[in-house]
User: Fold 4Fe-4S Mo/W bis-MGD-type domain-containing protein from Mangrovimicrobium sediminis.
Amino acid sequence: MTHTAKTFCRNCGALCALEVTVDDDRITGVVADGSTSPYGGYMCPKGLASIDFHNGAEQRLTQHYKRGEDGSFAPIATRQALDEIGAKLRDLLAQYGPRSIAVYHGTGAYRSVLGGLLERALVAAIDSPNFFSTMTIDQSAKWVTMGRLGVMASGKPSFRDVDLGVLVGNNPVVSHQTFPFGPGESGAPGRAFAAARARGAKLIVIDPRRNETARFADLVIQPKPGHDAAIFAAIAHILLRDGTYNHDFCDRFASQLDALREAVAPFTPELAARRADITVEEIELAAQWIGAAKRPFVGSGAGPSMSAHSNLNDHMIEVVNALVGGYKRAGDRLYNPGTLNPKPCVEMAVSPTRSWESGVKCRTADVGKIFGEFPTALLPREITEPGEERIRALISFGGNPVMGLGDPARAVPAFEELELLVSLDARMNETCELSHYVMATSQPYERHDLSIPGDALYPEAFAQYAAPVVPAPGDVIHDWEFFWAVAARMSVPLTLKYWNYGLDYAAIKEGMELGTDPDSPPDPEAMIRFLCQKSRVPFEALRDNPGGVRPEIEPQFVQSAPEGASGRLELCPPDIVAELAALLAEEPDSRFAYQLTCRRLLETMNSAYRDADRTRDKYPENWASMNPEDMAAEGIVEGERVTIASEDGSISGVVRAESGVRRGVVSMSHMFGGLVREAGSIERRGSFTGELTSLETWLEPINFMPRFSGIPVNIAKQESAT
Ligand SMILES: Nc1nc2c(c(=O)[nH]1)N[C@H]1C(S)=C(S)[C@@H](COP(=O)(O)OP(=O)(O)OC[C@H]3O[C@@H](n4cnc5c(=O)[nH]c(N)nc54)[C@H](O)[C@@H]3O)O[C@H]1N2
Ligand SMILES: Nc1nc2c(c(=O)[nH]1)N[C@H]1C(S)=C(S)[C@@H](COP(=O)(O)OP(=O)(O)OC[C@H]3O[C@@H](n4cnc5c(=O)[nH]c(N)nc54)[C@H](O)[C@@H]3O)O[C@H]1N2
Ligand code: SF4
Ligand SMILES: [Mo]
Assistant:
């Protein structure tokens, strides 16, 4: 029997609405469903790849595995695995307390909604502070900025209102990562940029590589990596010099303007231009456009958040955005006031909290939680540093942390010290290979989900509920079911709550008690129904309209700040003053001729889909892309294998010419290749750039972010293997 069913993709934040064809419990076709989605009909190659994966591509796991003493994996049944894991966690909790148990929330966990909520429910129920996620090895510079500068409660402007978008090290046309970090729309990003241009908006792209998004830009600036702080300090300098910042906004919502003026005084456009190897005119022009725009939005992506001085880069980018009032303003139309979780929107500043300075701290560093999480780069030390409360058990949920962390010489031995490592995944990735248990999980079209991750991000109010469209194969487990079942075996009752970033799970009052009888698991539909409690669209309407629902809402507008609101954005606190002074005094590192920068590929999602046929056809290697002039200068030819060496490690890579990559830069995607290289062997399936990064040197203050972009490297030709 053939039928079609509506659902949505869960690979990335775009949550594209899809219509799949189902033939005898197997998905045989997929098309984008533009009938209701606010993005219209759109999907990328990973939408197709997710169908293949459901059908068994990339050696999808359909049973769980347990690793034996000899390192080999043997199948284990669900019930047995849960009993053993539950017993071990119960013992650790009793003997060493809650801190002995940690979770790592990987990229695959963000859109497994019930799984993510029950993961938080478990951590809250046992009261462990050890919640780690990819965010602190990604763009937590944004969280640090929020903590040091404060936030505008109204949030960033809708892209539909923006007349100037500035994208710094962000490539939404490939990554679909945009709002709220940067201007754009996640679904059909190219369409949103084209529409913005058609209505007269301008775009500036600042990126060492002329990226795929740059084709929509009116101005493309290609600096050396790692100089965004200097560039944006110079832009702030110009805005203050010329008086082109938004005086009214700053008077009402910002403080420390004088300190900022003083701190950025030495950051002349000449200095920034010299350091970043761009022209003074480019900086002046960008500043002129930013100062003149009526509705600017200056945002950034992974590039500046991974490069040298990532926290300062992000802070200075946000300072420029604040100087020109790049937020939703009172009276603005609220295109998306939230559907599942409707929220009023008020134009007011919330002063910085510096959450990491108080409350429970890491064991190995004097740092507390950032947005409720500990820095992931500290995870290896939190495992290995001796002490009663060291981490002994880790649940890796939808992640590949040993690859994501980089520095395998430090990360791998730490993971090997764990008494219990459980991976929840459907791919036997490098972290699974180190795990005691690999729990094969169901895939998106086999489980229940709700568009909570998109609720505040869709450009217009919209919600979608996905019920399973095909049964799960083999003996697999739903992500949520794992957390609930393990908790049940620990006799720890879980409470499902509607959680969002910024909330403390334990402190949320309303919840659904789930019970601890292993023989009566909660009903996923009932859980989704609970999560729709506050929704503008009742659960039944979502269930009956699987293509999603756009609620009919009276036009809503951003409200003015309440009387007496006194919050302020602190533009230039003392630590920023000190970091700017240190940056000013910095000398260039002349030992390295190149810098390796991060990039993402349309066909992959970090380490997922790297083995999909479509990916391998196009990327048998994760090419090391270089400027042709650099290649000529080095005598390197297209397709040549070279050695790329940083202070911390070396890899070999296959060079490709890409004229859009600026000189002095090697642009390469991450998480290819294998974790462990046999001596003298040529990497299979590409190169693992994490070999070049370090979990000891170059870590940022506060979030301990490693340097994943702008890594200083040298390139050497390899002796021919004859
Ligand atoms: N197709 C696909 N989509 C993805 C992912 C994927 O793997 N594949 N991964 C997802 C994840 S985990 C994330 S975090 C997001 C990230 O999404 P984005 O932030 O858009 O990340 P990238 O696509 O890597 O783009 C980063 C850009 O920064 C530039 N850059 C590097 N260093 C610097 C620098 O020092 N300064 C400046 N100004 N630019 C710099 C790079 O050249 C690159 O073009 O994408 C998500 N979406
Ligand atoms: N050198 C270098 N290092 C980097 C980066 C870089 O640019 N350069 N980027 C950093 C960034 S931004 C990130 S986000 C991290 C990524 O680090 P991770 O998130 O740890 O790595 P991923 O490869 O994304 O792992 C995701 C896993 O989730 C699984 N998965 C997918 N969907 C589901 C699901 O629904 N349920 C379950 N249980 N599993 C699922 C996939 O099969 C995959 O194995 O790496 C960081 N590390
Ligand atoms: S952009 Fe691609 S990966 Fe992201 S949700 Fe849409 S189809 Fe899936
Ligand atoms: Mo990420």
